[in-house]
Amino acid sequence: MAAPQPRAALTIHHLRRHLVLIVFSVAAAATRGASTSASTHTTAASSAPSAATESPSPAAASFLRARCATTLYPALCYDSLLPYASEVQENPARLARVAADVAAARLRALSARVNDILRHGGGGAETAPAEGEGGGGRPSEIAALRDCASTISAAASLARQSSAELTKLEPDAAAGTTSSSSSVAGGGMSSSRQARWEVSNAKTWLSAAMANEGTCADGLVEAGAAAASSSAGKEVTAGVAAVKQYTSNALALVNGIPV
Questions:
Q1: Where is the signal peptide (predicted)?
Q2: Distance from first CA to last CA of the chain, Å, rounded?
Q3: What are the tens digits of pLDDT across the range 26-49?
Q4: Do 81 and 88 contact (CB within 8 A), yes or no?
Q5: Cα maximum dimension of the chain
Q6: CA distance 16 to 12
């Protein structure tokens, strides 16, 4: 009589996962319908930022420390973003954009690691590998890891979308003009409304990314104690907990943008 219970839990997990992916699909469709300039911003934000070679000025480092003090993980925030302080200077929108890029890079790395585990059979240390195979996870563990690979990859895309929105708040490097950046410094009514819209979108994407991270962690728990306590389950759970700190910090920095 106890056998149907894991099926029910797994069904609930799959339903929640599908709902999250539906939200992501709708968000992606909305982004695809944006203007050509927004597409340019998305491309620019798709890769992790390059760390500056020169040391930041005392003012830039002080600005970074003050902003990071508003996050849940200030030490991680400061250490992970200090290499970009010279680029950021004292621009809150640029700081939030770089933080979103760093979170996206961490999420991509985690997704790649989960896929690597899957290619080696799940990596369940407590399960004996099949003849000639490199690993052998239980079916519920494999299913949960596949869900994680999908949801974490989607979370990385959402973080990149957040970065793309925040890029619109920065001066255009080529033309020396701004889209909505003047509103961050006290621009007109129209640009201020646009900036609020872009910041709101950035918050939405990062919040959805954190929901995806939670879905991955919950799925491993719902797959059963054996899956959660396997070597693969422990590694992925720890990876999600770590990357969630970067996403949380990015969201806090977006919330601190004055618009």
A1: 1-33
A2: 57
A3: 444 444 444 333 333 333 334 556
A4: yes
A5: 69
A6: 6
Helix (H, G, I), strand (E, B) or coil at 69: coil
Of the two residues 53 and 78, the one the predictor is more confident about is: 78
d(CA 15, CA 17): 5
Q: Do the Cβ atoms of 159 and 250 come closer than 8 Å?
A: yes
Number of C-alpha atoms within 13 angstroms, CB side, residue 252?
A: 17
> Domain spans of the chain?
7-255
CATH code, residues 7-255: 1.20.140.40
- Is the distance from CB of 135 to CB of 120 less than 8 angstroms? yes
Cα separation, 81 vs 151, whole angstroms: 25
Q: Cα dist. 127→42, 121, 199, 225, 232 in Å?
A: 43, 10, 47, 13, 11
pLDDT one-digit tens code per residue, 105-119: 999 999 999 999 999
pLDDT tens, 121-151?
A: 765 434 433 333 334 558 889 999 999 999 9
The answer to whether the CB of 142 falls within 8 A of the CB of 79 is: no
Tokens representing residue 181 in the block: 């950046």
Asked if residue 55 has pLDDT above 90, the reply is no
How far is Cα 215 from Cα 20, in angstroms, rounded to an integer? Answer: 8
Q: What is the Cα–Cα distance from 66 to 152, expressed in whole angstroms? A: 30
Chain centroid to Cα 115, Å, comes to 17
DSSP 211-234: HHHHHHHHHHHHT-HHHHHSHHHH
Quote the CA–CA distance of 181 and 57 in Å, as a whole number. 23
